[in-house]
């Protein structure tokens, strides 16, 4: 089944431990800045979420505490035919 959202994008995640891994997903959702919206800090860890369409179904690929991630880079290579 062909994905409606096109091919998965490749993201390089560098963890605060220094470990680097590649995650394939269609989108990355960063937690909103609570102060921007006047929300109180409820003490729960803020999570970064990666989602992708796999076999026609939208799925959570990875969810991780924001404080555990140093950087996220889109390293997708696009080929033009």
Q: How does this structure look, described?
A:
The chain is mainly beta. Helices cover 5% and strands 48% of the residues. The chain has one helix and six strands; from the N terminus they run βββαβββ. The strands form two sheets. Strands 2-1-6 form a three-stranded antiparallel beta sheet, with no helix packed on it. A hairpin with a 2-residue loop joins strand 4 and strand 5 (57-65). The longest helix has 4 residues, at 34-37. It is globular, with a radius of gyration of 15 Å. The model has no long low-confidence stretch (mean pLDDT 87).
- SSE class: mainly beta
Percentage beta strand: over 45%
Based on Cα principal axes, name the global outline. Answer: globular
User: What is the residue-mean pLDDT, rounded to a whole number?
Assistant: 87
Task: Using the CA coordinates, give the radius of gyration.
Answer: 15 Å
Biggest sheet architecture: 3 strands, antiparallel
What's the SSE pattern? Answer: EEEHEEE
The rounded distance between the terminal residues' Cα atoms is 22 Å
**Distinct helical segment count:** 1
Side by side, the strands of the main sheet go 2-1-6
Query: What's the oligomerization state?
Result: single chain
The amount of helix comes to under 10%
Low-pLDDT runs: none
Report the strand count.
6
């Amino acid at each position: 089944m062909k994905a409606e959202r096109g091919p998965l994008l490749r993201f390089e995640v560098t963890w605060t431990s220094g470990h680097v891994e590649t995650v394939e997903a269609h989108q990355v959702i960063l937690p909103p800045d609570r102060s921007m919206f006047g929300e109180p800090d409820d003490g729960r860890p803020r999570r970064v979420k990666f989602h992708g369409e796999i076999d026609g179904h939208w799925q959570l690929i990875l969810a991780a505490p924001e404080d555990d991630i140093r950087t996220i880079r889109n390293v997708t290579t696009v080929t033009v035919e």
